[in-house]
Amino acid sequence: MAAAPQEGTRRAFDAAAADFTALGRHLWGPIGAATAAAAGLRPGERVLDACCGTGASAIPAARLVGPDGVVDAVDLSGPMIDELRRLSADLPQLRAHRADVTTWDAGGYDVVQSALGIFFFPDMTADTERLIGLARPGGRVVFTIWRGDAMAAAGRHLGRAVAAATSAAPPAEREPHLIDRINQAAAYATWLAERGLAEVDVAVHELRLTMTPDVAWLVITGSGYRGALANLDPDVVDVVRERYLESLRAEGVTELDATTLIGVGTTRLPVPNR
Ligand SMILES: C[S@@+](CC[C@H](N)C(=O)[O-])C[C@H]1O[C@@H](n2cnc3c(N)ncnc32)[C@H](O)[C@@H]1O
């Protein structure tokens, strides 16, 4: 029987957890901090951090809400949650949960935030709307996504390298996805407003990674791209690494675009009865 789509996502991030924190210094950390800052968090607030990974946005959020606040940080991946618990041992207000956030039940949050998570949902629109519904009326929502084809170059070079190392056919193009249509600021703002949010604003968070060989390989082993290495023997993975780095060199790739769009909005207050 084919694995559920969530299973593939979970397995890829389970495997990536060890290198996720190392890549975080270059990638997840700055994006997560910008996501938590955009939420305008205040001491004592209750936050849901969906698809929290190892806490790039959940940990700064926990610091901003302080000991009187709460951050429920939710991720599918057990290894990610274990690493988050280790990293947040001094932040009792951060509660890390291993769960599928598309079925998370608690609500009434002051802020619902998610950095680089919502495009993994099986139904991006319906599952995001459900998440928005977990914020209290007048609460804030912050969802961060990649801009354009940020990060895609790494996947292209990896796909070629895996094909060369395993003598397989080059990977097929990814199926078209909603995210391809809304990954620019104006389209993303429109999509968020259509989800019922008010005061929508989308900020562009520019980021470029310098692709030293170590960082370039971490981009694969510390992210969802890790899934492409599943089931390969370690010596084949070594060949993939060499081919991937060669492929980047051959095209003169020294930087990777890691720019994101940080979308914020507020949930509407009920209209009072006349
Ligand atoms: C690209 S990572 C981002 C992690 C973190 N927010 C950050 O910015 O570092 C995406 C995360 O989403 C998680 N994820 C994907 N679908 C999920 C779901 N339905 N419920 C909970 N977590 C999910 C994955 O396990 C992974 O840790």
From TrEMBL:
Methyltransferase keyword on record: yes
Entry keywords, A to Z: Methyltransferase, Transferase
Superkingdom of the source species: Bacteria
InterPro entries: Methyltransf_25, SAM-dependent_MTases_sf
Domain Methyltransferase: 47-139
Record SUPFAM superfamilies: S-adenosyl-L-methionine-dependent methyltransferases
Name the record gives this protein: Methyltransferase family protein
GO MF annotation terms: methyltransferase activity
Stored CDD domains: AdoMet_MTases
TM annotation in the entry: none
